[in-house]
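pipeline/complex-builder :: batch 7 item 3
reading input block
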Amino acid sequence: MAYSLKNELAKKERFMGGHRLCAGCGAGVAVRSVLRELDPEDKAVITNATSCLEVSSFIYPYTAYTDSYIHTAFENAAATCSGVETAYRALKKRGKVKDNFKFITFGGDGGTYDIGLQSLSGAMERGHDMVYVCYDNEAYMNTGIQRSSATPRFADATTTPVGSCSPGKTQNKKNLTEIIAAHHIPYAAQTTFIGNFKDISEKAHKAIYTEGPCFLNVLSPCPRGWRYDAADLEEICRLAVDTCVWPLYEIEDGVWKVNYVPKRKLPVADFLRKQGRFAHMFKEGNEWMIQEAQDWVDAQWESLLAKAE
Amino acid sequence: MAIRERLSGNEAVATAMRQIDPDVMGAFPITPSTEIPQYFSDFIANGKVHTEFIPVESEHSAMSTCMGASAAGARAVTATSSAGLAFMYELLWVSASMRLPITMAVVNRALTGPININNDHSDSMGARDSGWMQIYAETNQEVYDNFIQAVLIAEACRLPIMVCQDGFITSHGVSNIDLIEDEKVKAFVGEYEPENYLLKHDNPLAVGPYGVSPYYMEIKRAQAQAMKDAMPVIRDVANKFYDMTGRQYGFFEEYKMDDADVALVVIGSSAGTGKEAVDRLRSEGQKVGLIKLRVFRPFPRIPLAEAMCKVKAVAIMDKAEGFSNSGGPLFNEARNSLYDLPDKPYAVNYIYGLGGRDITVEDFYDIYRDLYVICENDDPGDVYRYVGVRDSRY
């Protein structure tokens, strides 16, 4: 059946309203979009790293998830999920569990790119049948917008503040999707919320129903940290993709595929301009920042296209 | 009929694990506990157990996998030592608060700084307030027996448990052991049937919430109650174990205490050396006794105080320094338990055996002699003492 957003939205919600995420936050959109792709007859256990998402969606005694859910700590979500998935195999073997379960983990960029990277690498390498979803909002938002290794260069974060001696963050963003792809897992992809959600929906379904460890990196803007109007979430995502700041691509069994090549590649400045965290880049004398940001994005994009050839 | 064997403490634990046949083991090697996952992997490789083994990339992930597995409804075990236990530290608190009955073999080793691979109790003592139960062993036989009992204790209390033994001393020392038949162990531990778990067919479960202030304290109080309620559970499981094996276990063992004038309180393998000192001194007519503490968490405050009150002076032995300026952890808790009693013995502390420093029968003679001096002078002197330090300034 051809993809239709109407069909997607008719599916049973597995992430309910009433959680306390901010208006205009990408995390909730990421979780809803991914969990919708579970086939209705399948059960799931959701694992969550400590994050905005965790403290907003499971405040005792209320949970926003209709499926089983476990949170243990910040840096170990992938290992925790490994344990759940292994228990499933053990109990299934002994005939104690009969249902089909899927295992999906959500972590922010702090819990994934940084403090949880070892745990994630271990789980991917061991080959657990699970999907790890990073909702990447490009800083430690839960503690108040500190820089992470996912924060782009020049972003104004609370531990890389812009000042008379500082242009904001001085390092470029880590390429986590490529790091995870280097584990030679069956499926890794980058996505975000675009148009009719076809990209994220299809990638989530593929990740959930591909056997073995799969990874989704979902750009999930944060209105507080990025400083945009809550209503602009979709436009920010669209600009990230059309400027090639956040290319949509996937690596399936080692084959690289770019899923979207913009008809007209927009200048990076179009993406930066919409966000308060980059406002200083548009001050007189700071043109070099925009130029260097553009050069970086261009080089990354060319390198991706070369891999996908 | 019991099976006579000769096993190291690590082999004994691995054997107990094989007989229990848990659902999941997640473990990472660290001296001196490394052999436990090694022996166990060998059992798996040869089809002797049905357990799923997770060869994780760290102890942090070892505990994380055990938590995930346990919450999912599986019986989960692990093993570690020293820095490995320290690396799990945050998760010890989380797993206890989640009320996950994980059984962990701790092969006690000095907690590094400077790095040292030999035995003391600084690793598990450093985790004493994490909400885990702790049971210690003197011998290979005891660690084997404790591990089998621990699974039942943990599951009945819904609390995780550490089964501790002394690194190298018992873990690598081979000695005679009576093993229980596989089918008897299997029947003793039974099936793990949790009430709620992540993979339950008819009711999903959410665990690990954000515990806001209006609920947090009740959760902690319930945990404290579980630790309190563990006392009768430990006793009942020991009784059931006695019925199966004829081997008797309490919160502590009293050795020649009934007519003793002075006594030691000690944890772990050093109790064996202490008992030898007791026997020799008794042959010379000195009425000395020894208390070997088996269960440190929950702390058997009242019965231990009653046992110590049989004598005029006790030396409370700590194989861990607490850097508190008021003595080691066992001393503080044991001495505290005496406070409300009208007629209590003098209680002094000896820190000993750090980083594998030997303690000898002769050292114990000296300690008993000190205790008699305290009784004669009616004065405990400095209660915070060291045994076996070579630096003449102390």
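note: The mean pLDDT of chain A is 97.
queue -> next item
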